[in-house]
Design a protein that fits this description.
The protein has about 300 residues and is mainly β. The protein starts with a strand and ends with a helix. The protein is built from one helix and 26 strands. It has one domain (about 1-300): TolB, C-terminal domain (Neuraminidase, 6 Propeller). The strands form six sheets. It has a five-stranded mixed beta sheet with strand order 1-22-21-20-19, with no helix packed on it. A five-stranded mixed beta sheet has the order 10-9-8-7-26, with no helix packed on it. The chain has one helix at about 295-300; strands at about 1-5, 5-10, 15-25, 30-35, 40-45, 50-55, 65, 70-75, 80-85, 90, 100-110, 115-120, 130-135, 140-145, 150-155, 160-165, 170-175, 190, 200-205, 210-215, 220-225, 230-235, 240-245, 250-255, 270-275, 285.
């Protein structure tokens, strides 16, 4: 098993950095600062993320993903939002209905161009959280229910398997996946359930291994799809929140961290860390919708 260490690539300044990924079209690292509602972008240069720019969403930003037209799609507080290639922000309708004390959390685009995102309770644990698939035309499917806190979502290299984190249950689970609704007769299978801290963000590398951020564990763990622990990347921040592969060759692991909930700290909480882990990631899937004329604008015409 490999033991590696990440090095801070930004100042320790983010409250809850999440959703880090590489935008090869712009040559930028993208991520969000969740509670601040910021969609952030920075250049990668000599082990640092520099020239950081932001777009303010005006509400929480749970995750960011890339769209086919060059823009971005964001998991906003209770729906989707888009950022067009020219920087225009469009906020979609409320998708969470009568559940008022809940928001969207982590999410990503699936191999078929839909956005997959889960919910988080803003009050007490309910075990009623959901994982949803939102198609570019506004259709919504429920992929999973009965979740404690929906977090990281990722797919196997061939797209036939979805992996999903339930942070409060302390599990990473899998299910077969395709463009059609999930088979209700197939149960979600637990892959990991004996982790050293709360599992948070998740990504899959080109070899099919899972990288799981350890919230409270100051690390990211690499596991085989069978669950075997393969590597640990330590960071100087207790609350590791999300891993993602960045760089032109997708061969650098970026790890976001958080200051959220910490009254005092002596580490580099809130920085983004980089590590050379000897393996490459997968290119992000692209949302098939328009960011200049998303489905909710079409519904208004």
């Amino acid at each position: 098993m490999m033991h590696l260490k990440g090095k801070a690539a930004t100042a320790a300044e983010f409250n809850l950095a999440e959703g880090v990924l590489w935008d090869d079209r712009a040559g930028l690292v993208r991520w969000v600062d969740v509670w601040e509602g910021r969609v952030l972008s920075g250049a990668l240069h000599n082990g640092r993320i520099t020239d950081i720019l932001e777009v303010s969403l005006g509400q929480t930003a749970g995750a960011v993903a890339l769209a086919e037209d060059g823009g971005l799609v964001v998991a906003a507080a209770r729906g989707l939002a888009t950022v067009s290639p020219t920087g225009d922000v469009s906020r979609g309708p409320d998708l969470l209905g009568q559940r008022t004390d809940v928001r969207f959390n982590d999410g990503t685009v699936d191999p078929h161009g839909a956005f997959v995102v889960g919910t988080l309770s803003l009050t007490d644990r309910t075990d009623e959280e959901q994982l949803l698939r939102i198609w570019p035309d506004g259709r919504i499917e429920t992929l999973r229910e009965g979740i404690g806190l929906s977090n990281g979502v990722a797919f196997s290299p061939d797209g036939s398997t979805i992996y999903h984190v339930d942070t409060l249950a302390g599990t990473v689970s899998r299910h077969s996946y395709g463009p059609t609704p999930l088979d209700p007769d197939e149960s979600w299978t637990t892959v990991l359930d004996s982790l050293p801290a709360y599992p948070d963000g998740l990504t899959v590398d080109a070899e099919g291994a899972l990288w799981v951020a350890q919230w409270g564990g100051a690390s990211v763990e690499r596991h085989a799809p069978t669950g075997e622990l393969l590597a640990v990347v330590k960071v100087n921040a207790a609350q590791a929140s999300c891993p993602g592969f960045v760089g032109s060759n997708l061969n650098i692991l970026a790890i976001t961290t958080a200051q959220e909930g910490l009254d005092t700290f002596t580490d580099e909480a809130g920085a983004i860390f980089l590590a050379d882990v000897g393996v490459s990631g997968l290119s992000p899937h692209l949302w098939a919708g328009s960011t200049t004329n998303p489905y909710w604008r079409k519904e208004d015409t």
